[in-house]
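User: Just a sanity check before I run the rest of the batch. Below are the structure tokens for the first item. I only need the designed sequence back.
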């Protein structure tokens, strides 16, 4: 039986048989005009889709930058250096504001401990750290001060970068911690530069999770530790293809308020990391340890100082504040997970 091979030249079909093989070739023909129009329309649609996606990504980055330009000053005034959850005793009933600030520092220590980094097994003086989504640089300054690490932080917010550098200078850490405006999906660093790659609650803002992970791995030096602490949605069950409609609806509302792209699960991140043959990959759900955080943020916003400061910040910050009860709802429904994931790049 003759086999068939297809090849493309222009438009129109022709077949010929050579040595038992039938070659079907596209040849010039008047009927190709209709095919060409269809192909052109399809290609134009694809190009528009790519352009729209690119425009959406640019708009998202702009919104995220403006959100943090507006809100960072208020956050620092109420909560201090660290723009992330605190680590709490799950049995604690009442936590003061000072305890909350201590809990945020404790979060850094607990994350390092989970990754195998501590006073007994430190990062090492002079080691290089990248802080991906650095906020106003709290984590970097802590790591520079405690371990003598050389830290570089990146953020989309010019206000955050300027404030982070000012705080580093004020604390005598300008030679150890520096900050700049840059995109985490296209980090301005060479391959293999950092001994610790640190991402504290920035992954949820990445529209391309695969590219995000790829950049974390790319800038990690051989033997480097990669730490990713991020908001995720729950892992899907074996028979599930997607989240439930009411779960999607809640996450969509949170995304609109906080300028977040689509969420992913911890399992999704693990699959991405496993594709790089990284070592010592491990993950845990720390949701119980951060439970007091959002109620405390809401209470701080409802104080006289917090309320009137909030009104002065801008519409983006106010919209984010109104979404805070939805975060609590998401945690209580076991929909939102506070995930820590660590791994090591092979030597």
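Assistant: Here's the designed sequence for the first item:
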């Amino acid at each position: 039986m003759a086999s068939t091979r297809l090849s493309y030249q222009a438009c129109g079909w022709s077949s010929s048989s050579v040595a038992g093989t039938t070659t079907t070739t596209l040849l010039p023909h008047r009927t190709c005009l209709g095919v060409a129009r269809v192909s052109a329309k399809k290609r134009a649609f694809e190009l528009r889709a790519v352009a729209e996606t690119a425009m959406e990504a640019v708009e998202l980055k702009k919104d995220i930058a403006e959100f943090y330009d507006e809100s960072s000053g208020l956050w620092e005034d109420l909560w201090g250096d660290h723009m992330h959850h605190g680590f709490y005793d799950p049995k604690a009933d009442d936590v003061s504001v000072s305890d909350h600030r201590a809990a945020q520092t404790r979060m850094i220590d607990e994350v390092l401990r989970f990754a195998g980094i501590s006073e007994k097994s430190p990062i090492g003086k002079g080691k290089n750290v990248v802080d991906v989504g650095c906020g106003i640089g709290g984590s970097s300054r802590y790591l520079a001060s405690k371990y003598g690490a050389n830290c570089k932080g990146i953020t989309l917010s010019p206000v955050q970068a300027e404030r982070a550098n000012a705080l580093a200078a004020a604390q005598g850490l300008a030679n150890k911690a520096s900050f700049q405006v840059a995109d985490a999906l296209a980090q301005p660093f060479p391959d293999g530069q950092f001994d610790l790659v640190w991402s504290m609650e920035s992954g949820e803002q990445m529209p391309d999770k695969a590219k995000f992970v790829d950049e974390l791995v790319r800038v990690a030096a051989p033997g480097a530790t990669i730490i990713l602490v991020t908001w995720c949605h729950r892992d899907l069950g074996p028979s599930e293809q997607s989240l439930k409609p009411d779960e999607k609806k809640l996450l969509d509302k949170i995304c609109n308020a906080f300028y977040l792209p689509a969420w992913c699960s911890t399992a999704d991140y693990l699959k991405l990391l496993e594709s790089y043959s990284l070592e010592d990959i491990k993950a845990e759900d720390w949701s119980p340890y951060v439970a007091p955080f959002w109620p405390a943020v809401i209470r701080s916003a409802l104080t006289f100082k917090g309320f009137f400061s909030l009104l002065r910040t801008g519409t983006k910050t106010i919209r984010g504040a109104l979404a805070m009860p939805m975060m609590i709802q998401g945690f209580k429904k076991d929909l939102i997970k506070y995930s820590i994931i660590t791994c090591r790049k092979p030597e």
